[in-house]
TrEMBL record:
It comes from the Eukaryota. Belongs to the glycosyltransferase 32 family. It is found in: Golgi apparatus membrane. It holds the Pfam family Gly_transf_sug. The gene is A4galt. Keywords: Glycosyltransferase, Golgi apparatus, Membrane, Transferase. It comes from Trichonephila inaurata madagascariensis. This is Lactosylceramide 4-alpha-galactosyltransferase. One of its GO terms (molecular function) is hexosyltransferase activity. One of its GO terms (cellular component) is Golgi membrane. It is a single-pass type II membrane protein. Its main location: Golgi.
Amino acid sequence: MRRRIGGPTPPRSTSSGSHDVSRASGPQEQLYRAHQSLENIKLLRVDFGQLMFGTPLWHWYIKEKWKTSPFKVLHISDALRLVVVWKYGGLYLDLDVVVFQSLSNLRNTTSTDNGINVATALLAFDPGHPLLENTIQDYATNYAPKEFAKNGPLLLMKNFKKMCGVSKVDEVRLSNVSKCDVHVLPMEAAYPIPYERWNEYFNSHTTPNETAFNSSLLIHVWNKLSSGGKVMIGQNSLYETAMKKHCPTVYQYAKNCDHV
């Protein structure tokens, strides 16, 4: 049994109840109905205090230094993904991905978006994995509220290098032998288009290209860079083609709204 980190009793939730999305109208109602039709998607309300309690990040959370950060939403996201997968095990994915194949066989796996560093858009680990535990403890000790990425991918990479004894991820991936029980997917598995060419996902094409990502398990579409744009239905972009094939219900919702 994992030892709890000392501290006061976790706070009770002060939520006044969940928002009744079934009463939404317009596009929100359409999205709600699309969600209701997908049996493999469940939306849960998370109590951060309850989740952090008993983990190395409990004291970090209650001290609330993260609230002073200009990147507090990002930093909470960085912390939550590490804690949830470390505590319960399983698979974490960013929201800005389209999944092409089953990921159920991934175990103690992350990915790289450049062949040098690990990325945190995909984390599939057993509960209590030492890489995540070391990273969480490092997060609590060396949290940098003013730094954008230091508490996320860079922190995981720092602990990956220390634990695996390498300077870049391809030293582990290309050796076919993981000395630290961590597997790293190659770029083409999740990041076939690198961030500096993110707009290639959204360029229009005369005809759909359905073979562009045959070597990929999923695609990550770089939401930080792409979120300000719109995907126009019918332009046969790589993203639209992928959504149409692999996320037909959500694609139909977007089609009804004329654009994404």
